[in-house]
Automatic annotation (TrEMBL):
Organism: Sneathiella chungangensis
Name of the protein in its database record: GTPase Der
Coiled-coil intervals: none
Keywords for this protein: GTP-binding, Nucleotide-binding, Repeat, Ribosome biogenesis
Gene name of the encoded protein: der
HAMAP family hit by this protein: GTPase_Der (MF_00195)
GO molecular function: GTP binding
The family this protein is said to belong to: Belongs to the TRAFAC class TrmE-Era-EngA-EngB-Septin-like GTPase superfamily. EngA (Der) GTPase family.
The protein's assembly and partners: Associates with the 50S ribosomal subunit.
Residues at which GTP 2 binds: 184-191, 231-235, 296-299
Stored PANTHER family: GTPASE DER
Function according to Swiss-Prot or TrEMBL: GTPase that plays an essential role in the late steps of ribosome biogenesis.
Length: 438
């Protein structure tokens, strides 16, 4: 499945011309077919190797007999509902008409991202109209000539993120084993936990004689779901030189974290939550993985409430990026509490895979912008036009800005925290990349 683009705008701005250019030869066939209704034309479009579905609304206005405004609005509403993104065309040779203005005012509130396209920009005659179109408040226009095929590269650039989104969705459909890593300092109890999870006997005797504990991945199933356990030094023979392991552990963790989707950071409940634990946790976030913290050797901990509070405090101070990380207390030796570990892993895995529709996202963004508008930069207020999730695993968003200027880190944090709270995304990294239209 590819994404869908709607072409909208008042009559005569060049919608059909653009539609024809995008769809190419195939369209002629469609157009010549008698009985093809004019209320909506759809086609398979491409720009270079970018393929998408395009909806042309030209001609739809003829079907209604009330005011042009009302007709445009209705045709556009229908198209927007189906589209992932809309191209609003204006005629740069004529400039902005009151109808364009009225229409733009209404589109600014649309939940579907709208990209402004100044058509008929070949030569110089379109220049004033192109400049004027900034005033529509739909961001920087793309200068295009549908008739001459100019500006298609820019169109490609702005549409590309919508394809990435689709491609990711397709990739996720294949069921691959969940890649789970257990990391932690030496002696935290990683081997003990792994053995408990996959069954100690099997592990030690192995299907093939002489299975070494050097292996870095073990596959097993949890409630019908394939899980691939990638492990660090914990899987290695304990007889190995302990000192060397100690030195290697952070680098090893990093390697394993990169292979994983969900990382369980195992900490030793007998010791305090140390800098090295935080360093590993920070790596998990930096690498964009989902995190679960397991506090092991809970059987030996006397002041349980105090120990938990200490861990939570340290986390909230040092790793505010992953507010809400599950902290599970276990005893790997007896297996106590381990039954709560895998459900937590599955839960953060699902969160890590979260997808938020562009419509929901932009409804949310509107409220966020209203509550706390973006700051000024060089005397101008930074404008955010819309937002779309470009990928999951971890949730990653493009924020489309219509003016140049850097969005401060604090504002991005405001949006990240908002996403985390409003879409319930604890324990997973959230990334937002601001982009400025060309
Ligand atoms: P629609 O009503 O929005 O579908 O507009 P059309 O595609 O039918 O185009 C309206 C008129 O504008 C036609 O005469 C087109 O040939 C012309 N037109 C479309 N694109 C361009 C362009 O890029 N440059 C120029 N100069 N004319 C164009
Ligand atoms: P690794 O280096 O992280 O793989 O740690 P190990 O699994 O080798 O465990 C280190 C030590 O901690 C061993 O002596 C384990 O028996 C002990 N240990 C592991 N889990 C627990 C637990 O839940 N409770 C207690 N009391 N000891 C544990």
């Amino acid at each position: 499945m590819s994404f869908t683009v709607a072409i909208i705008g008042r009559p005569n701005v060049g919608k059909s011309t653009l539609f024809n250019r995008l769809v190419g030869k195939k369209l002629a066939l469609v157009d010549d077919t008698p009985g093809v209704t004019r209320d909506r034309r759809e086609g398979e479009a491409s720009i270079g190797n970018l393929k998408f579905k395009v909806i042309d609304t030209a001609g739809l206005e003829e079907k209604f007999d009330d005011s042009l405004e009302a007709r445009m609005r209705r045709q556009t509403e229908i198209a927007l509902e189906e589209a992932d993104v809309a191209l609003m065309l204006i005629d740069a040779r004529i400039g902005i008409t009151p109808l364009d203005k009225h229409f733009a005012g209404w589109l600014r509130k649309s939940k579907t991202p709208v990209i402004l396209v100044a058509n008929k920009c070949e030569g110089k005659a379109g220049m004033p109209g192109l400049m004027e179109s900034f005033s529509l408040g739909l961001g920087e226009p793309i200068a295009l000539s549908a008739e001459h095929g100019e500006g298609m590269a820019e169109l490609f650039d702005v549409l590309l993120p919508f394809e990435k989104q689709e491609a990711d969705e397709d990739a996720e459909e294949e069921e691959k084993p969940l890649q789970l890593a257990i990391v932690g300092r030496p002696n935290a109890g990683k081997s003990t936990l792994v053995n408990y999870l996959i069954g100690e006997d099997r592990m030690l005797t192995g299907p093939e004689a002489g299975v070494t504990r050097d292996s870095i991945a073990v596959e097993w199933t949890y409630e019908g779901r394939a899980v691939k356990l990638v492990d660090t030094a914990g899987l290695r023979k304990k007889a190995r030189v302990q000192q060397k392991l100690e030195k290697l552990s952070v680098a090893d963790s990093l390697r394993v974290i990169r292979m994983a989707e969900v990382v369980v950071l195992l900490i030793d409940g007998e010791e305090s939550f140390e800098k090295q634990d935080l360093t590993i946790a920070a790596h998990v976030i930096e690498e964009g993985r989902a995190l679960v913290i397991a506090v092991n050797k809970w059987d030996t901990v006397k002041d349980r409430q105090g120990a938990l509070k200490l861990i939570r405090d340290r986390l909230s101070i040092s790793l505010p990026q992953v507010r809400g990380v599950p902290v599970i207390t276990i005893s790997a030796l007896s297996g106590r509490g381990v039954d709560r570990l895998m459900p937590a892993v599955m839960e953060v895995y699902d969160l890590w895979n979260t997808r938020i529709s562009t419509a929901r996202l932009n409804r949310w963004l509107e409220v966020m912008l209203e509550q706390h508008p973006p700051p000024m930069a060089k005397g101008r207020r930074l404008k955010i036009r819309y937002m779309t999730q470009v990928k999951a695993r971890p949730p990653t968003f493009s924020l489309f800005m219509s003016s140049r200027g850097e969005l401060p880190e604090s504002y991005l944090r405001y949006l990240v925290n908002g996403l985390r709270t409003d879409f319930n995304l604890p324990a997973v990294p959230i990334r937002i990349f601001p982009r400025t239209g060309k």
